[in-house]
Amino acid sequence: MPRVIDKDCVKCGACTADCPVEAIHEEPEQFVVDPNVCIDCGECHCPFGHMGKIPFDFNKYRTQGK
Ligand code: SF4
Ligand code: SF4
């Protein structure tokens, strides 16, 4: 399952440098992981603890920036 970024993302952009397939991109309110691109390699890390794996507290996360 793809990684997800929670709504408290502070848009620092650090996680984008970790991703080998460029699955993470910026949207107006936060950065998001494209579930169709993420290969679940586990290389991405958020220094603020805003990245996780589906499923846990799914309603807390966006996958399309809505
Ligand atoms: S998920 Fe974390 S590392 Fe990525 S942009 Fe948001 S705050 Fe920064
Ligand atoms: S798990 Fe891997 S492929 Fe998915 S967003 Fe993180 S670094 Fe990118």
What is the CA-atom radius of gyration, in angstroms? 10 Å
Poorly predicted ranges (pLDDT <50, ≥5 residues)? none
Strand percentage lies at 15-25%
Order of helices and strands: EEEEE
Mean pLDDT: 88
Structural class: mainly beta
- Say which molecules are bound, naming each kind only once: iron/sulfur cluster
Biggest beta sheet summary: 3 strands, antiparallel
C-alpha termini separation: 20 Å
Number of strands: 5
Order of adjacent strands in the largest pleated sheet: 4-1-5
Overall outline: globular
DSSP helical segment count: 0
What does this structure look like?
The structure is a single chain. The protein has 66 residues and is mainly β. The chain has a domain at 9-37. It is built from no helices and 5 strands. The chain has strands spanning 3-6, 24-26, 31-33, 51-53, 61-62. The strands form 2 sheets. It has a 3-stranded antiparallel β-sheet, with no helix packed on it. It has a two-stranded antiparallel ribbon with strand order 2-3. Strand 2 (24-26) and strand 3 form a beta hairpin. It binds iron/sulfur cluster (SF4) (2 copies). One iron/sulfur cluster (SF4) is lined by residues 2-3, 18-19, 21, 23-24, 33, 38-44. The site of one iron/sulfur cluster has 15 residues, from loops.
